[in-house]
Specification:
With 172 residues, the protein is an alpha/beta fold. It has a single domain, classed as Alpha-Beta Barrel (fumarase), CATH 3.20.130.10. A 5-stranded mixed barrel has the order 2-3-4-5-7. The two termini are 24 Å apart.
Length: 172
């Protein structure tokens, strides 16, 4: 099913674990070091470099691009690395998480509490996923290199609902 981020947000309760989608819209990449900095900024009451309300965060550290490409390989990283920060991010408005692998009970509970969703990207096919990226730009924490926050616009990005906002999961 082809869907935009806006459509997903409007109908989030209708997407069940196991549903295959092709997502289009603007997302942000952020891995553990970027999450750590965002949570530190939140805890300090400081301004964030991105708006978290209704944000879509992709756990990814893009590789440098080849001269004829928008972005290098950009496959998902293991989501559990962000679990310590994820409930705070969800409590502050993030609605869509994209990564790979199982999540902790705390994250599972926080997804339900915040009526959010966790989408699974296929690992090992980062070069193919990169073909779904239509634009790519640095937003914050440049010193983190690939772990900085990047804004990417995606088109028909293939995903599977791993945890829905109603408590259903593919992880048993």
């Amino acid at each position: 099913m082809k869907i935009t981020i806006e459509q997903l947000l409007q109908n989030i309760k209708d997407f069940k674990a196991g549903t295959k989608i092709e997502l289009t819209g603007t997302i942000y990449t952020a891995r553990d070091q970027a999450h750590k900095r965002l949570v530190e900024l939140l805890n300090g009451g400081n301004r964030l470099p991105i708006e978290l309300k209704d944000a879509c965060i992709y756990y990814c550290g893009p590789c440098p691009n080849a001269p004829d490409k928008i972005i290098g390989s950009c496959g998902p990283t293991t989501s559990s690395r962000m679990d310590v920060y994820t409930p705070k991010m969800l409590d502050n408005g993030v609605k869509i998480l994209i990564g790979k692998g199982k999540r902790s009970k705390e994250v599972f509970d926080s997804i339900q509490k915040n009526k959010s969703i966790y989408l699974l990207a296929t690992g090992g096919v980062g070069a193919l996923i990169a073909e779904k990226v239509k634009s790519f730009k640095l937003i914050a924490f440049e010193d983190l290199g690939p772990e900085a926050i990047y804004e990417i616009k995606i088109e028909n990005f293939p995903l599977i609902v791993g945890i829905d906002c109603n408590g259903n999961t593919l992880f048993g």
